[in-house]
C-alpha cells in the first residue's frame, strides 16, 4: 500500500492554505483506499467459493474505483471472465469489444504488458501509441471511456487474474495515487483469489476423490453381489499369491471357509503334478506372455472327494502394468462331467439297440443315426448325418403318412406309432413299426423329432405261424369233437345193428326155403353187415375202434395192401412202391393200418380218375428222426414225443388242392365229389390219431398231392 505524504513536507511558499487542502485531500484518499481494502477483506474473508469471491470483488471495486469491473482468470490457456459488474447499465457492444481486445491482445511476454507481470497496473487510456494501440483508443472515443486500467492480481510471484477497470459515465481519470491503490488492491485480490482458487481446486480434487471412492464402492458392491450369488467360484490373491477373497460358491465347492483356506492354502487342495503345470501358466501370465490362462484340474474337497474344475486365471495391473491382484474363475465341471457320462451311456445304449434310431430337426436335417440304422443302409460310421436324406429310404406313401399324420400327431400328443416299410441297402422293403417322438427344448417348443423303426418281419411271420397253428388246433379240436360225437353214435348204432342182425339171422333159421320173406331177411342181414362196416369206419375215425396193437412191418403191410388194391384202380399200372430197407417196426393194428393205406390210395386214384392214363401214385416209406419243433409243425404232432418215426408217403400227380380244400380234407362232412362216399380221409385222420402219429398234406392246384404220415417206431420185433 502507498504511504501517506510525509508530515515534514512543506507546501510552496505563500500558498499554505492550498498546501493544507492538498494534504487533507491526500489523507482523505489514503483513508478511502484503506477503507476500500478493509472492505474487500471483510467481504471476501467469509466466502470460500472462487466464483463468489470474484463477484464480491467486482462489486466492491465498482463504483469505488471504476464504473465497470471485469475479472479475468489467467490460469486457463486463454483469459476467461470470472465476474463482471457495472455501476449503471451499459452498452453490451462495449463489453464485447473490450473483452475481445483483452483476451486477444493480452500477452504478458509483450514489452507493452511487461509491467503486469511485476504487479504494476497498466493504463490503456491515453495516446494512440499506448499499450492498447489505435484500436483501444478508437473504442475509448466511441464509448466515451475516460479511464481504462488493467490491474494484475499476483500470487506466489505470478499473475493469476486480471482486473479490467473502465470509467466512462463518471468521467473519472486515474491519478498516481489511484494507481498505487490499484497496486495494493491487485496484491490483495491475488491473495484472496489464489486462496479461493486453491480451495476450489482442493474441493474439486476432494469431489473427484469422493466420486472415485463412490465408483469404487459401487464397483465393489456390484462385484460382491455378483460374486456372492454366482455359481462360479471366484478367488482374489495379491501379487505374491496370498488369498484375499473367496466367494461363497468356492467355499461351498471345497467345503472350507475363507479363513480356513487362507490358513491351509488353496494349493494344498490340488494335485502336485497339476499344481506345477498351473504355476508355469501363472509365470507366463506375470511375464506378460499371455493375457489369461485356462487349466483343468482336480481339487480335493474337505470330505476327500475330488472335484474336476476349470480355472481361468487373470491379472489386474496398475496404470504402469505392475501386477496388483490375481483373479481366478473356477467352474465346477462335476455336473458337466456327469452329464457327459450320462450322454455317453445313452449313446452307448442307442448304439447297442437292435432297432434303428435317429433324430432330426423340424426342417428334416438329420443329426444322429445309431449303428442299427447305419447297418440297415450300410452307411459308414464316419458319415456326417447332416448329409443324409430320408426321402430315398421310404416309399412315397410312407413319407406322406409320416409328414401328414405322424409328425402332426407327435407334435400334438408327444408320440405317434404307425406301420410302414423302409428300403434296406439292397432296395428291399422291410416292414417296420415306426414311432415318432417330439423332443422339446427347455421352453417347451418342439426342437427335434426322433424316429424309432422296429422290424416286424419276424413278428409277422410268427403271427402267420401262430395263425396256422391255431388253425391246426381248431381243426384238430373240430375233428376231435366230430370224432367224439361219431364214436358215441357209432357205438349206439352198432348195438342196434347187433340186435337187428341177430333177430334177422334167427328169423332165417326158422323160415322155410320157399317162403317169400326169406329173401327179404337176406337183404336185412346184408344191409346190417354193410351198416356194421360203416360203424367200424366211424369208430376208426373216432379212434375208438377195436385195435389189436402189435409190432407191425409197415413195408409188408404196404406190399400186401398194394397188391390187393391194384386190381381195383382205374389204371392198375399207375401204382408204384418205393420202400426203404431196414425199416423199424411200428406199434399198431394191422387192419387199421391197411384201412388207412387203402383210404389214401383210393383218394389218390379218385383224384386221378380214369381219364388220366399218365397219372401216377407212389407209395414210399422211410425212417426219420423228429424233434419237438418238427412235430409241432405237423397236424396232430403237437405234444408228441420226439424220436424215431417211420414215414409213409402217398404221392399223386393229380389236379391238387387249394388251401381251403386242404384245411377241410379230413372233415367227415366235406367232399370234393358231387356225391360223397364213405368217411375216406376222415377215417385216415382217426387212425393216425389213434396210433399217436402225425400227418401233413402238401398240395397246390395243378401240382399234385403228397400225404405224409409219421408213426412212432418201436424196438419190438413184429410177429412171425
Largest sheet: 5 strands, antiparallel
What is the CA-atom radius of gyration, in angstroms?
66 Å
Mean pLDDT: 80
Distance N terminus to C terminus?
Answer: 174 Å
Secondary-structure-based class equals alpha+beta
Query: Could you tell me the strand content as a percent range?
Result: 15-25%
The global form is rod-shaped
The amount of helix comes to 40-55%
Count of extended strands: 22
Key terms for this structure?
720 residues, alpha+beta, 5-stranded antiparallel sheet, disordered N terminus
What's the topology here?
Blueprint: H1 16-45, H2 50-64, E1 68-73, E2 80-86, H3 92-105, H4 114-117, E3 122-123, H5 133-143, E4 147-155, E5 158-167, H6 176-229, E6 233-238, E7 243-246, H7 248-254, H8 258-264, H9 272-286, E8 293-300, E9 306-317, E10 323-332, H10 334-352, E11 357-361, E12 366-369, H11 371-377, H12 396-413, E13 415-423, E14 429-440, E15 446-455, H13 457-510, H14 516-542, E16 550-552, H15 554-566, E17 575-578, E18 586-588, H16 590-608, E19 617-626, H17 628-632, E20 643-652, H18 659-663, H19 681-690, E21 694-699, E22 705-712
Parallel strand pairs: 17-19
Antiparallel strand pairs: 1-2, 1-5, 3-4, 4-5, 6-7, 6-10, 8-9, 9-10, 11-12, 11-15, 13-14, 14-15, 16-18, 19-20, 20-22, 21-22
